[in-house]
Amino acid sequence: MRLVNASAARGEYFVQTVDYETNRGKRYSIYFALPPWVRDPVSQDHAYVLGASIAFVLGEDYDQDLPVTETTARNVSEALDIWHQWHPYKRRVKLSAPTVPDPASRDEAELNEACFFTAGIDSLFTAYKLGPAVTALSTVLHVDPYDQQKIREETFDVAEYFDFADRTGRVFIPVATNLMTVVPEYFDAWAYLSHGAGFSSIAHALSGEVKRIHISSSAPYYQLMPWGSHPETDKRFSSSSVEVNHFGADWERWDKTVDLVTDSASLSVLNVCGKGKLPPPYANCSKCQKCTRSMMMMDLARVNKDEATTFDWSYYDLTRIATLHLRSKNEFNSMHDVRNKAIELGRDDIVRTIDKMLKGAEKYLFLTNWEFYLRQRFKSVVWMKPTLRIMRGGVYRALGLRRSL
To answer: Do residues 160 and 240 both lie within one domain?
Structure first.
């Protein structure tokens, strides 16, 4: 795989575009549409970070003529070595690009410390815990293909994030991109492998404004596993100009929740739903396992439900929640965390709910394990995903397994 072109243009948005070509001649054009006031990046390292990570997922060597800074070249090589250790069945790819010395240091007083912001528990906790140190919030809007009207609509849909940033004294930086979806294999690997690299490429595109950016942890240190965002890999997508930091693994989800339920500003935008951010009146569907798990955790933390206005609490029925199907090991681990806290706090009603849920779902966990195995090792499965998703839904219906209340 090789970099064909890298360009930038200013208009309604500051659009940075990179074009790649695979060994089989397939071309991919990936863009980052930034607010027009964003300054030029200090290097073109975003092209290398993104290209090298896509090449690894595709199992192809990577080559570009555009220079990459020395620190970035070294760090990305180390990150891909870790990926190969995690997934030895994947090909060890070779990286080739001319290197240039790292740019001169900058006046950091003019730059922001940012965090990627989804309004989920993890990113809200990062903003809450770091407080004034975080001076910017960056939300990634997935828009494919490039469409100015669609970008305007997506930006409008997260207007409350802009308001949240303004209320907390921060700059809001929406970034529209197609990097998540344009390469099917990269999209398929998004959760377990590629999203830390993808977000880091955005960090480099923002290097004119940002000196440090935080990717919020999904799991505490004791639950770490090979995953797309990880403290050992995120930092290796840094350069001398932009530090990429994995933040939050020192705390469990419970610790984060306890802090956030006392902060009305955070509760006003909290979005955890597996369906993404929904239109008013509720940002969360309040019926999927992600929503109900968070609602149980907030219940244990004694949330004021009148302030947790992004959820429809009329759906909060433990008898119904007990019938939900858990599909993955991650979901099992997360629900065990809620169960352990419920035991500690003497909430037998929640313990019984989760016990029933776990017992009902455990015997079907092999279905997901096989699906994940096939997705990782057979590229053709990526192109069959729509069909497989329909088949999976049919199997769930036949077995009476419910993913939503």
So the answer is: yes
Task: Give the closest residue to 246 by CA, choosing from 229, 226, 228.
Answer: 229
* Alpha-carbon gap, residue 108 to 222, rounded angstroms: 34
Q: Domain containing 395: what range?
A: 267-399
Residue 216 sits at φ, ψ, to 5 deg, of -75, 140
Q: Which of 49, 79, 100 is where one domain is finished?
A: 100
Q: Quick check: 234 and 274 in contact, CB under 8 A?
A: no
Question: Is there a single domain that holds both residue 331 and residue 221?
Answer: no
How far is it, in rounded angstroms, from Cα 166 to Cα 136? 10
Crossing angle (nearest 10°) for helices 289-300 and 253-260: 70
Q: Which residue shows structure tokens 């313990």?
A: 351
- The answer on 349 and 387 residing in a single domain is yes
CATH number of the CATH domain containing 218:
3.40.50
Q: Are 20 and 27 in contact (CB under 8 A)?
A: yes
Q: How many structural domains does the chain have?
A: 3
- pTM exceeds 0.85: yes
d(CA 34, CA 175): 5
Q: What is the pLDDT of residue 372?
A: 65
Whether residue 216 sits in one domain with residue 115:
yes
Which alpha helices (H) appear in 209-347, and where do they start and end?
231-234, 253-260, 264-267, 289-300, 318-321, 329-344
**Boundary-marking domain end, from 47, 75, 100:** 100
How many other C-beta atoms can be found within 10 angstroms of the C-beta atom of residue 162?
18
Residue of 75, 118, 111, 295 lying closest to 216 (CA atoms): 118
Q: Does residue 371 have a pLDDT over 70?
A: no
pLDDT in tens, 49-108: 999 999 999 999 999 999 999 999 999 999 999 999 999 999 999 999 999 999 999 998
Cis status, amide bond into 88, omega within 30 of 0: no
62 Cβ contact partners less than 8 Å away, ≥ 6 residues apart: 1, 2, 51, 52, 54, 55, 56, 93, 94, 95, 96, 97
As a whole number of angstroms, the distance between CA 338 and CA 331 comes to 11
Do 44 and 242 touch, CB atoms closer than 8 A? Answer: no
Whether 37 is covered by a domain: the verdict is: yes
No. of helices (H) and no. of strands (E), the chain: 17, 12
Nearest by Cα to 194 from 371, 54, 60: 54
307 in a structural domain: yes
Please indicate, yes or no, if residue 367 is contained in any of the structural domains.
yes
